[in-house]
Design brief:
binds ligand MGD, binds molybdenum atom, alpha/beta, 700 residues, binds iron/sulfur cluster, globular
Length: 700
């Protein structure tokens, strides 16, 4: 075990490591251990941007590490699939992996490799724990490929199309900005280290604009808050473009030199005068005009483009239009001016180099279609599902379809996780995974430009094993011996870092952190340039326009109906990271609802409500508030089924339709109705709820 200050006589040690969870910030951590047990997790200053402090979730991560929900040993299911308290029998790793190998071989021989679907997403997000021996194994098996589109697919497609994923402005550079637009992001909960930099900029005179259907903590501190109807960012952004072009405020010199397609963008934006956009978005036209004016005048101006605006039918075009604004307004070239999206690709690092097996052209399954894929995929049907780094029952759209699919008797499911997730209830075999406090990894931030070494602070809990070892072991059992040469994660770490350029590898090993060649705080269009083929900004990609059903920058109207008028959104909260730590939520969840919507439905604070649409229903409590726009309601992302009264979460109401570009999830296109139900006690799944006499019962 590597320690930074050694082990003293009390068995006390401190370990320098980093947080690799799916969060932009990638904090450096100082972990204290006494007699082999975690006693404290705190921030360190190794990563300068996160400045020595961390969030409350990870500070108490010991509650997951030593939790009763932790999977300690491999186990095989005994009773039916999907029960709230499923029965499993412990087995040895050898028995478990032999059985997995046997079943995968049977499936492959009878149905072909594509009948196997590996299913993974964020997990611990590190370079070692994903796309290493796992990718090598599944590629060599000829398994179906997974399109990892549940998050960031539209924004990433937009950032790639426009700028070839040029690195973004880092949080600390916000202190140089005069205008900050936080668009569809809620950093107070989902990336906390940006907030003090924004506040510092405000103290120095910066203007803050927040565009969000909810009055978030930052919206309360904003000069202007535009509480848009979910899914209407596209017209709002196009109205800003139109304003710039129409008033001669577009930076035509910059556009001529650095961009293509501005005329095509201008024509599409022409359909959106400020008044029309404001009407569709349900916001005040004067406020929107003021934002247009501020954005044209102020510099340095930065837009923090979040992920809240992508999760709907217009998400891709919305992200394109938002991220195109600094180009059209000429905001690049100064510190604190430009945009921030994801900085995941700031590094000259290529995973393909270390996977060590060619990607085969097998069929690709969009992960947002898991439920339907389990029924509709033919030739071959999906017969084996290997879930790791992901908790699809809690996090994928159309939860009921996912659960039905996973209940199939003829489906062989492996769930490899740290804790008994909602998905684990459907597993034939569960395998225990290590947490980031028990393994080596490399954490890559997507807010600050940060690459850090993650190292074990404690011994593995129970018989947990790191991903890289389990997939390498399975490959060996399947006779794929030459696939991946590193069998332990320490070897894997070395194998991976050895393929990095020396300027990165050496500091990463010696100091635990590295800086990319362009520096940790690049100025866009000074230190970094677009990474498109010809280094130009592509404001209008004709091929993408052809592929997009309605065309690029074309607004698709709201899917609400008279039956289902309320827009249900499910943003990140400070209590979980996606569904990670959802096991610790002991209070029943509450949906936030505007006071007018509540009064209309005879609802008051603490009442029990039934949210429903044609796909499903969620029974939960109500929190009445004026901090969300009327017509929009909000239930947290990442809830486990036990957190609601009927065992369904927001995803039971989320359609599995896809975003306009990128094949992303439309979480915020859920349209629902809400009605009061007579209160029931919170006792897990068995509560029976009766529809209140005040509202007519419906046939669902
Ligand atoms: N604590 C915590 N931190 C996290 C996560 C977590 O679950 N918990 N998740 C991590 C992950 S995986 C991600 S992707 C990021 C996501 O972090 P964010 O980018 O902050 O994304 P969301 O939380 O989905 O939504 C952000 C805001 O968008 C608003 N919003 C919803 N719909 C719309 C819309 O149509 N338009 C506009 N303008 N706003 C809208 C929501 O009200 C919310 O306040 O956070 C990461 N950090
Ligand atoms: N309704 C709604 N749903 C959403 C969203 C939303 O806005 N609204 N947002 C979506 C977003 S942004 C995202 S990113 C997805 C995320 O969805 P998921 O990727 O499913 O994220 P988590 O639920 O945190 O699941 C990660 C799982 O990996 C496990 N894990 C962690 N480290 C390891 C490891 O080293 N090995 C193994 N084997 N397992 C590990 C964790 O215990 C956890 O169960 O959720 C999406 N779901
Ligand atoms: S979850 Fe985010 S804020 Fe919390 S410790 Fe990890 S990187 Fe830092
Ligand atoms: Mo995400």
């Amino acid at each position: 075990m590597a320690t930074s200050d050694g082990n003293d006589h009390r068995g006390h040690a401190t370990v320098d490591t980093a947080c690799p969870l799916d969060c932009p910030d990638s904090c450096s951590l100082s972990v204290t251990i006494e007699h082999g047990k975690l006693t404290g997790i705190d921030g360190s200053t190794r990563q300068a941007e996160t400045n020595g402090y961390i969030c409350g979730k990870v500070r108490r991560f010991d509650r997951r590490v030593y939790s009763d929900d932790r999977i300690l040993r491999p186990a095989i299911r005994q009773g039916p699939k999907g029960q709230s308290r499923p029965k499993f029998k412990d087995v040895t790793w050898d028995e478990a992996l032999e059985q997995v190998a046997t079943r995968l071989t049977e499936v492959r021989e009878r149905w072909g490799g594509e009948a196997i679907l590996p299913f993974s997403y964020g997990g611990s997000n590190g370079l070692v724990s994903q796309d290493t021996s796992d990718a090598a194994l599944f590629r060599r098996l000829g398994a179906s490929r997974l399109s990892r589109t549940v998050c960031a697919a539209p924004t990433r497609t937009a950032a790639r199309t426009l700028y070839g994923e040029m690195p973004s402005i880092t949080p600390s550079d916000y202190t140089h900005s005069q205008l900050i637009v936080v668009w569809g992001a809620n950093p107070s909960e989902s990336g906390i280290h940006l907030v003090p930099y924004i506040r510092e900029a405000q103290r120095k005179g910066a203007t803050l604009v927040v565009i969000d259907p909810r009055q978030t903590k930052l919206a309360l501190k904003a000069d202007i808050h535009l509480p848009v109807r979910p899914g209407t960012d596209l017209p709002v952004a196009l109205a800003l473009h139109r304003h710039l072009f129409e008033h001669g405020l577009a930076d035509t010199t910059f556009l001529d030199e650095h961009a293509r397609g501005s005329e095509r963008l201008r024509l599409r934006a022409d359909a959106w005068p400020i008044g029309r956009a404001a009407e569709v978005a349900g916001i005040d036209a004067t406020a929107l005009e003021e934002v247009a004016d501020l954005y044209a005048r102020k510099s340095p101006a930065v837009i923090r483009c979040g992920w809240g605006l992508e999760r709907n039918r217009n998400g891709g075009s919305a992200a394109l239009a938002v991220l195109a604004l600094p180009a059209v307004a000429g905001k690049f070239g100064v510190r604190g001016g430009g945009y921030s999206m994801s900085n995941l690709n700031a590094w000259p690092i290529d995973r393909e180099r270390w996977i060590g097996a060619e990607e085969s052209p097998t069929r690709a399954v969009n992960m947002n279609h898991l439920g339907r894929a389990l029924f509709e995929c033919q030739a071959p049907p999906i017969k084996a599902l290997f879930v790791y780094n992901c908790n699809p029952v809690a996090t994928m759209p159309d939860q009921n379809a996912v659960a039905r699919g996973l209940s199939r008797d003829d489906l062989f499911t492996v769930v490899f996780d740290q804790v008994r997730t909602d998905t684990a209830a459907y597993a034939d075999i569960i395998l225990p995974a290590t947490t980031f406090l028990e393994t080596y990894d490399v954490a890559k931030g997507y807010g600050p430009i940060s690459l850090q070494l993650v190292q074990p602070a404690i011994d593995t809990v129970g018989e947990a094993r790191p991903n890289v070892e389990v997939f390498a072991d399975l490959a060996a059992r399947l006779g794929l011996v030459d696939t991946w040469s590193a069998n332990t994660e320490a070897e894997a770490l070395l194998q991976i870092t050895n393929m990095m350029p020396n300027e990165i590898r050496i500091p990463l090993h010696e100091a635990g952190t590295a800086t990319p060649p362009m520096g940790a705080a690049p100025i866009q269009f000074v230190d970094v340039q677009p990474r498109t083929a010809d280094k130009k900004i592509e404001l209008f990609n004709e091929a993408l326009d052809d592929e997009t059903p309605e065309g690029l920058y074309v607004f698709q109207p709201d899917p609400a109906s008279d039956d289902y008028p309320l827009a249900l959104i499910s943003p990140a909260t400070s209590r979980t990271i996606c569904s990670t730590l959802g096991e610790l939520q002991s209070e029943p969840a509450a949906v936030e609802m505007h006071v007018d919507d509540a009064v209309e439905r005879d609802l008051s604070n603490g009442d029990t409500v039934r949210l429903f649409n044609d796909q499903g229903e969620v029974h939960c409590l109500v929190k009445v508030t004026d901090r969300i726009r009327k017509g929009t309601i909000s239930l947290p992302k990442g809830l486990w089924r036990k957190s609601t009264l009927n065992g369904s979460t927001a995803n039971a109401l989320v359609p599995d339709t896809l975003t306009d570009i990128g094949g992303g999830a439309c979480f915020n296109d859920a349209r629902v109705q809400a009605e009061r139900v007579l209160a029931a006690s919170y006792k897990g799944r068995d509560v029976t709820l009766t529809v209140s006499a005040a509202t007519a019962p419906r046939a669902h």
